[in-house]
Amino acid sequence: MPFGNTHNNFKLNFKVEEEYPDLTKHNNHMAKVLTKEMYAKLRDKQTPTGFTVDDVIQTGVDNPGHPFIMTVGCVAGDEESYEVFKDLFDPIISDRHGGYKPTDKHKTDLNFENLKGGDDLDPNYVLSSRVRTGRSIKGYALPPHNSRGERRAVEKLSVEALNSLDGEFKGKYYPLKAMTDAEQEQLIADHFLFDKPVSPLLLAAGMARDWPDARGIWHNENKTFLVWVNEEDHLRVISMQKGGNMKEVFKRFCVGLNKIEEVFKKHNHGFMWNEHLGYVLTCPSNLGTGLRGGVHVKLPKLSTHAKFEEILTRLRLQKRGTGGGRSVRGGHSLPQLPTMEGAADGRAAGQPAPLA
Amino acid sequence: MLNKSYLKEVFQSSMLKDVMQPNIMFVQCHLLSGEVFILYCVTIISKNYSNIIETLNFKRATHYNGPYTVLQSVRQFQQPIQAQKAGLDGKQVGKETLPPPFTVSILSDGPRSQRSLSSLRSLSDCGNNMASSFSRILSSKRNVGILSLVGAGSLTVGLLLNREQHVSAGAPVRRVYPASAEYPDLRKHNNCMASHLTPAVYAKLCDKATPNGYTLDQAIQTGVDNPGHPFIKTVGMVAGDEESYEVFADIFDPVIVERHNGYDPRTMKHPTDLDASKIRSGQFDEKYVLSSRVRTGRSIRGLSLPPACTRAERREVERVVVNALGGLQGDLSGKYYSLTDMSEKDQQQLIDDHFLFDKPVSPLLTCAGMARDWPDARGIWHNNEKTFLVWINEEDHTRVISMEKGGNMKRVFERFCRGLQEVERLIQEKGWEFMWNENLGYILTCPSNLGTGLRAGVHINLPRLSKDARFAKILDNLRLQKRGTGGVDTAAVGSTFDISNLDRLGQSEVHLVQTLIDGVNFLIECEKRLEKGQDIKIPAPISQFK
């Protein structure tokens, strides 16, 4: 939770040993990396908005983790967090993104014309195609740390940007706190509506504060381009449609993102991006592209094959239930693994993004 | 003659030259008449200045002729101060603007200064935790000598050494947007905070912070995140430290008035009375009363409360309290079970005894930040007889519970008082004390628990009375409350209820327990009459504040 700036200074009156968290029973990336010495080095720092190392690690301290699933255990409160606390974030990023080094550069390519094929995935098997990513608006603190004023400013700017879209992107914004029952029903039926987070990973990071203030959903009339505002990130952008034309989905994704970015740039609030980390998002696991491209696919025979998991791993793919990161139902959705380029191995198969 | 320049001269005495960075100065002045005035002024002296820069304010203390009085008045000056900068040779080299400091008022001193201190906080430009060291210095008898000088008409200057400042002062709260952009949307809310937090009050308080850095936004977060229930009006805000009640008085005071049925901390005084010998007829008929219990909470002065405490502070609370509890003897002697390293066997035993508390799941608590770092520095202490129990770092620094099976409420309360007073004595030996002041009584995290923080209750079986239509009204008039036997928010099992006092603030512990005892006896009488087929009467409503 964001404290007043003086709170961190006040903590410095206590010795490192007294403040250092007990991580003996913890199994997450933060706990692996945060030694007492590192904590001592970072604890008197804060970002320009006042985010401190204790704010970064609170979610990891409160959620010791699971023996099988390695969560990240830390979040960024603003763009500068990744710089001010790089001693902590760099090894975590490296671990999470398959050895990505602090000196590596991330390549961004949103030119849909560079995509080969993808327009003919057999619709007898592929039920739907989807690409999602996140974007953060430069100059504003991120969901763990932002104030109501900042969150509302992000909403206002986002809605302005989205309402300026036309053609296939023309759409409407539905703020969570002013939704009619009919609208809510429709959004649920379309599987668009998002709820207040219940995961302790998110709650402990302070992302559900002031819910549902300044949260909302925007989608185009065709229901093929959807944006979540102020959920886990400033923006979550989703392009999807039924069937197997991933090329079209990706084209819409790229075009839509570029159009939105133009509007933000005009207001001097482009997206948070740098050449090392790519697109900057709240959770280190989403850095780089923040991209999850996937399909809902029916594989009744292959999925029962003994080598299914290995095939997926070698193809750098991950499977989930069709409910998303948490459920297991019916067919399989196959997103691809790495979110940062230059990472040879990416995430291990079967690991869902911890904050999604 | 006691004026600025005289004091300045005194300050520049040799005693001061050795001191690099004092922040707070207090002056105790003994007058010829034998009266004692305590003056305080706050000055800022930073590393760059070798002289006292400027004394900001002299405030005449309360005229003191009693053993002690209560204090607490931390006010934050809005204006920055002009300071003279002096070079190492003492020559003035220029002026500089220093950020607004705090003034601290100490309103009393005296032989038993235990209750006489607020937590003194350091200035806004360093988040120093001087309060604990300072209050400890002043509370232990040997250090009162520092303050007072021999002889009438003498002037004593006390100095408190500052620890090294870590960073230069910044604005207490990061404010990029005006208050109107930050004001929460409370249109769908039903809690005490939402009822009283107008945009004007928010604008006034939103850029203030307590000396430890606790802000209004944090205090109200739980109320913003939990809109409430049409039938149950929650409080909707918490205190992060003792000073919260002062710094954010403009919102806390009306909330307290509403929650405590008209008790106004601005004008009224809260009586504390832990003399169990005053209790009359505290033995209930055990045909009806199954168990008796009294609980309260206590906070350790100088350490932040659960919504705001750092890990170190929480561990310090644990250390201080467990240390004190270790000194209890006789029927009170017992053992501490830390939540972090509890054996399976101990855990099962505590569950069987219904002593174990769990990580809070209620969003009212989690949104206030009270479950951070769980289970670090949390634990349970109980005596060998399992009749005196202390929870450490759950919703408050400590929750103290005395209980036993049966209806001997007088004995339960006697043990309660004895245990509390013993623990208080033991922490005072080490220079600590409980948070308390004469308007709010014992300071706890939630405003609903201010005053006595006391809930005295019984588990009672009232098969006939509970079905009578007048039951609710009878309870109401007796200032009693019923709950299920699982505690707050549970339903009753059969016809067994938890009956306890409604009030917390404005009446003393003895008074509240006596009210409970009288009320329960009345309920038992009603039940007996109904058994015999006789009619019952609704009692006249009890008046609240004496």
Description of the structure:
- With 356 residues, chain A is an alpha+beta fold.
- Chain A has two domains: 9-97, ATP:guanido phosphotransferase, N-terminal domain (Transferase Creatine Kinase, Chain A, domain 1, Orthogonal Bundle), CATH 1.10.135; 112-121 and 130-287, Glutamine synthetase/guanido kinase, catalytic domain (Creatine Kinase, Chain A, domain 2, 2-Layer Sandwich), CATH 3.30.590.10.
- Chain A has helices at residues 5-11, 16-19, 29-33, 36-42, 53-62, 81-84, 86-96, 148-163, 181-189, 200-203, 246-266, 308-314; strands at 126-135, 171-175, 216-220, 225-229, 235-242, 273-274, 278-279, 292-297, 320-321, 332-333.
- In chain A, helix 8 (148-163) crosses helix 11 (246-266).
- The model of chain A is unreliable at 325-333 and 335-356 (pLDDT under 50).
- In chain B, the strands form five sheets. Chain B has an eight-stranded antiparallel sheet.
- Residues 10-93 and 98-172 of chain B have low confidence and may be disordered.
- Chain B has 546 residues and is of the alpha+beta class.
- Chain B contains 16 helices and 18 strands.
- In chain B, strand 1 (24-30) and strand 2 (36-42) form a beta hairpin.
- Chain B has three domains: 4-168, no CATH class; 179-259, Transferase Creatine Kinase, Chain A, domain 1, CATH 1.10.135.10; 276-531, Creatine Kinase, Chain A, domain 2.
- Classes of the chains: A alpha+beta (356), B alpha+beta (546).
- Chains A and B meet through helix 1, helix 5 and helix 8 of A and helix 8 and helix 11 of B.
